[in-house]
Design brief:
The chain has 391 residues and is mostly helical. The protein folds into 2 domains: 43 residues, no CATH class; 278 residues, Lysozyme, CATH 1.10.530.10. Helices cover 55% and strands 5% of the residues. It contains 16 helices and 7 strands. The strands form 3 sheets. It has a 3-stranded antiparallel sheet. Strands 1-2 form a two-stranded parallel sheet.
Amino acid sequence: MKNKISILEIKKFIKKNKFRINSKEIEISILEIKNFLKKKGFVISKKKDSKKQKSSFGSLAQTLLTSIIIISIFAITPLVIDLSKQSMIFSNNVENELKENQKIFIDPKLDEELNQSFLFDDVLQLDEEPTDTVRLSALTIEELFRSTNYNLDDVRKTKLVKPISLTLLPEEIKQIENTKKRKDLFIQIILPLVIQENNHIKLDRNKLFNILNKNQNTIAENNWLNLKFKQYGVVNKDLSTLKVRMDEVPVSMAIAQAAKETGWGTSRFAQEGNALFGQWTWSGEGIKPAGADANTTHKVMKFKVLQASVKAYQRNLNTHSTYKGFRRARAKLRDDGKKLDSTVLIKHLDKYAETGRVYVKILQQIIRQNNLEDFDDAKLLPSSIKLESLI
C-alpha cells in the first residue's frame, strides 16, 4: 500500500525545517517536491479544511436557494403579468363602457320627433307655486347684494355665486343712468337663476347616466325615466334623444339672450310678465306685442316668477326642432370631451330671431363686451346638501 502525504503536510514540513520556497538560498519548488515524492512511492492528496468544507456547503445551499427563487420568479412573472393585463383590460372595459354610455353617437334620425303634450307641465307647476312676489326696489336689491358681499368682481375671481333668487325685476332698473351699473345689477339678478336651472339639469343628467350604467333598473328609476321622456318630448322612449336634449345651456349665452330680449331688464315684457327671453305662445296667457298686426295671434309668454322664465327658455332650446343644430353641436362638444363653448353654440341660434345672422353677431358682441364667458364655469354656493355635490 502506498504512503499518503498531503500538500499541507509538505508545507508544514518545509516551514518546520526552515526551508524557504523559491528563495535564493534553496531553489526548490512544491512541484519538484511532489515529483520527488511520487518517485518514492508517496500518493499526494489535497487535504480539505473543515471550515472550507462548511463554507463550500453553505455556498452550495445559498446558490441552490437563489436558483429556486430565480426560477420561481420567472415561472410566476408571466402569470402576474397576465393577471395584470386582464385587470387592466377589465378596468379599461368598465371605463370605456361608462364613457360609451355617455356618448351620443349622433345619426340623422336622432332628435327628430317631438311630443309637445307635457313639455311645460313642470314650468307651469313652478309658476303656480306660492311664492313671495314682492317687487323689491333697485336700491333694496343693491343693499342686499352689498350686505351679502355679492359682486361680480369677486365672482370672476372665485367663481362662486351667492344663492340669491329674486322673483321679479326692479322697476327702477330702467332709471339707472349708469350703463355699467345697470348691466351689473341685471347680471347679478339673472346669474343665480341660470346656474340654478343648469344645476337641476346637471343632477338629472348624472342620474340618467347612473341609470344607464346599471344592468337592471328599479320601478322608481323607470318611473323617473318616463317622466323625463315626457318633459323633454321624447318619442318611443329613445334614450339617445334624451341624452341630446337633457343638457345645460352655457351661462354666458343665456345672459346675453336675456340682455338682448329685455334691453337689460327694461322692456315691458320683462317688467310686466317676467319674460326674459321673448318666447312666443299661440295659446294660453301672454302679452301682445304693441306693434303687432291685428291678424297676428302670437303673444309673448308671461310668468309669475323669473325662475319659470329661465326654465321655459332652457326647455325651449332643448326640445324645439328649430334648435336641433344647437343640440347636435352641444352633443359633439360633449363627445369630444370639450366644454360647452358659447361662441361655438351661439352660431346655431340664427333662427331665434327674424334678424338671423345679425342676431347672432349681436349676441357675440354682448358676450365679448361684457366678458360674460367669465361666468360659464361659475358655481352656485349650495343652498342644500344635494346641490353641494355640484360645487
